[in-house]
Q: What sequence folds into this?
């Protein structure tokens, strides 16, 4: 903990404070003490009775004057199967906290300067494992693995809360795909269903459908009782649903534009990140060759407005206009796709200049 | 007045201060004293000479060196009539301040906790009355009544400023529909026309046309001399213009996502609201059944970016892409519409997580 | 320098501070001292070796451990020529600082009040000159001149950094048009190419292509080593690329919605501007007649979300919906175009009400 940093010091460099509501209190996350308090509350939250009832099949919860049950809360749901011709796509994913270096090279190549220490903090990430959680598939990352499906498929995601550091329930909540309330992966207070509260050490299998209207590029993220804090710590990833048999781009990149708040990192700087890292050289360097079909999918991964801008290129937006700089809102995505024709070194960045200067940049290298 | 709350206390929980320009001063609305000063200025503003001239037909105003008149300022305008086959749709609407409870149940069902007192402040709302202001049609609400028309119709809105508490002129300014300058409902300083300054106790009838390019879902709101403050107090509502004979959705909901600033409410919390209320259980609980045609129309009702996200559903955006989370800017709207096929309890919310945690949430209950 | 203004005074009226990264330091531009420090750093930045190498053809730069060269950094590029039937469109443009009055009339006609002094600060602007920099074509302005081309043309822009006041390198970086890395006009640290660092007193000729997918309305702006600060000082302008032979609108207006930060202006007010000016009467007054083809192109010129709203009109957005209020993100544009049919005096403004109140307004006068 950095001593001697007052509230304003943290707020000042990070802009407006995050607001987090947890365990009956609304906390403005202005400094590390606020975050510690929110985490303490989160650890004290017990499994909602409704979710427990579904899990262990005990007697239904007692009447709750503040949370009257509706007929829809008594519904039961099956587990969806693939459509004819579709497949089950299985993933094993663990949520775990880890020491995360926001700038492994220690250098900002775009602005050509050193990035001062400290650069490491305790983040929270989704990590992919092989079948049956036999072995991790590579290191944990921010964002988590990309889940892929085609229309008619079912995503079966075996999720494990493997974290012991923060000691609180987390989940996986998907966008875009279809799910029943049991697989929503969202804490709803007294109305929480089984998938919405996965305590440390527990596992849960989510089943999500790739319906025809799920075609697109979507985020998933934590939606447990401490969602705001844990999502901002790195618990997010991407889902792509394609038409059956659709061609993958030759080069396909998924970028989250998001900030790590000073109150969370205990680092007294505004860290505007791409995929958990700050500044070209640390963020993804994407490579392509002239003639390739190239796609950049960019997500807003925090509470701010960002834009995806890349030098030397333009593309047709969904509304038919040409663009080289598309706004992207919180937990939405935009896709830029083109046939490559412009060799050289190019910068991609958020066009909020304060974000660009605080690290939201990366390289795109095109060979002839 | 809450004593002992300094400026930073209010600014801190509410984020950036509202800026309000009124009566020759720009005021950052950081605390209740600022708001009181702005209101005092607003009460001192006299009816602009131009608006008075149109009202009472006295001699034209004297030459004003700062505000030279243009030829267009001397134009006269008629009152539009419906197109062949169209109708006059009449409404009687009063603006009046009222004590407003932001959380009547005192409970946040999404996060399952009590919402502390104080929860009530003096808001400003539009209220619908029966013909000739004979009797109120239900209680005053935030937002005000939804005005409906079809292409070719004319909306005739009898407006009364029935407020004595704030003691200042207010108006109704519509989006989307066509109007002449007299029915613009906007204060323009020395260029204000009759509909732009409705003093306490006065009435004015606005006439607005539902032209073919007015099809859509639009806001209306105060645009008097103290617009910023009074709109943020609750003076807004919705207009829907449909194609002639268009089918109404089976379930149609109009949601304003907006904050009540601490300086306005004198409540030391960031109140992120849906339709003037915070948190699921207080905000609208929307009900539908499988098979119904369901539409959610969401407006940005303040100065911030919001998004409309709802669990378990996705829909086709106007640009042809599928979405489950659409950004919505200040005083714009987005429409999400689908045929219901997914029973259960679902949360809708703004995906700015700080807004979600501060109350911008609600329930959507779908029966099989 | 206004003495006695503490950090909070500047931050308070301007909202969140700009973040600027320059010369190895990240600076939150909260007050004039921060800006002076950023400028001092910017003046100390030497021409990157790679850019120098391209310019003077000396031996290649020594190995740089932090900035390893990639094969793409060794590529050479030609200078594009027009397509068959296309033309070379030549412009001579100088960047120079100047004393800039944000409100020449001293009056806000929309709110009918005086705008207090001080109203002048040292801005940075692009100014158009006649062929060979023979003579300036009118006064310097914010935004800079609009560059026009049709598909198949080449824009040849002779750029001169004519500023001696700030003493630092600036550039012109275009959106939308196609360019090779040499004509990107962007500082990339050690990877900077010739067009990315134009020191005081230097000239450089950019060549940009109007490809078929460059059709649209685009910004250009500084992208030198102190981009954030100098763009926010006024170094931006517009580019329009039309289909070959496309008809120009009868009335065509290019509006930048942007703030001048108090730390930059040393003026203790939040100046929300249109084209460098605050408040109707100082910002562009646009005139048209019934029957004319009218286009408003609006750009976001800073780090904030703005919207373009105009009274009495609506138009079809690119996605096919009707709108009267379109959000516009940082360095993106939206176009509103209609056949005029509604005479009178109309206000255009940003619908972020705090921005409207702080000056982001203007008049549109329509004659019958």
A:
């Amino acid at each position: 903990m950095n001593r001697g940093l007052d509230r304003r010091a943290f707020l000042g460099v990070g802009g407006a404070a995050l607001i987090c509501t947890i365990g009956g209190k609304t906390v403005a996350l202005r400094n590390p003490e606020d975050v510690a308090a929110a985490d303490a509350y989160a650890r004290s939250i017990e499994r909602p009775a409704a979710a427990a009832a579904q899990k262990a099949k005990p007697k239904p919860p007692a009447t709750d004057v503040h949370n009257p049950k509706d007929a829809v809360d008594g519904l039961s749901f099956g587990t969806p199967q693939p459509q004819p011709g579709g497949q089950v796509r299985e993933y094993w994913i663990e949520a775990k906290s880890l020491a995360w270096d926001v700038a492994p090279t220690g250098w900002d190549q775009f602005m050509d300067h050193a990035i001062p220490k400290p650069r490491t903090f305790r983040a929270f990430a989704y990590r992919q494992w092989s079948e049956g959680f036999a072995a991790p598939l590579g290191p944990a990352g921010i964002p988590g693995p990309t889940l892929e499906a085609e229309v008619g498929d079912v995503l079966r995601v075996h999720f494990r809360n493997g974290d012991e550091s923060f000691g609180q329930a987390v989940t996986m909540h998907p966008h875009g795909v279809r799910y029943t309330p049991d697989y929503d992966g969202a804490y709803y207070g007294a109305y929480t269903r089984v998938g919405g509260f996965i305590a440390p050490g527990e596992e849960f299998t989510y089943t999500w459908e790739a319906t025809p209207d799920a075609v697109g590029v979507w985020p998933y993220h934590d939606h447990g009782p401490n969602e705001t804090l844990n999502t901002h710590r790195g618990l997010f990833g991407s889902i792509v649903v394609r038409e059956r048999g659709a061609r993958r781009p030759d080069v396909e990149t998924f970028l989250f534009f998001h900030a790590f708040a000073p109150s969370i990192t205990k680092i007294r700087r505004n860290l505007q990140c791409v995929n958990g890292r700050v500044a070209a050289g640390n963020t993804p360097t994407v490579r392509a060759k002239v003639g390739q079909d190239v796609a950049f999918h960019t997500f807003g991964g925090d509470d701010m407005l960002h834009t995806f801008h890349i030098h030397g290129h333009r593309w047709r937006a969904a509304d038919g206009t040409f663009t080289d700089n598309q706004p992207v809102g919180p937990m939405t995505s935009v896709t830029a796709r083109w046939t490559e024709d412009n060799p050289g070194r190019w910068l991609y960045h958020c066009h909020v200049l304060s974000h660009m200067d605080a690290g939201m940049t990366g390289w795109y290298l095109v060979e002839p």
Q: What stands out?
A: Chain B touches chain C through 56 residues (CB under 8 Å). Chain B is about 10% helix and 35% strand. Confidence is low (pLDDT under 50) at residues 1-15 of chain B.
